[in-house]
Specification:
With 94 residues, this protein is mainly α. 83% of the residues lie in helices and 0% in strands. Helix 1 packs across helix 3, helix 1 packs parallel to helix 4 (71-89) and helix 3 (43-64) packs antiparallel against helix 4. The chain is elongated, with a radius of gyration of 15 Å.
């Protein structure tokens, strides 16, 4: 039973958490940068790409941290989501 809970925790961190954060983050940028969001890819596609980048980060950082999440992990996840949205919306051209 303990191994099942550990596996569920890792699946939570690997799939649900980065994608949920990406959905919320992309929704926020959709509302703030309306003009850029209209010119960029659709909202769901941007969210899924940002979530995939977060999943890749999790795949690297969770084993390095021994399966535990930390403040550094959440900070890195936020930076990856920020960089993904900035890249997709091309905010630096504004």
């Amino acid at each position: 039973m303990e191994h099942a809970l550990v596996l569920l925790n890792h699946l939570w961190h690997f799939f649900l958490l980065p994608i949920a954060w990406a959905l919320l983050f992309c929704l926020g940028t959709q509302l703030v940068f309306r003009q850029r969001a209209r010119q960029a890819a659709p909202w769901l596609r941007r969210s899924l790409l940002a979530g995939a980048a977060g999943c890749a980060l999790t795949l690297v950082l969770l084993p390095l941290n021994g399966g535990n999440s930390s403040v550094a992990y959440y900070g890195a996840l936020l930076l990856v989501l920020l960089a993904s949205e900035a890249w997709q919306l091309k905010i630096w051209r504004a």
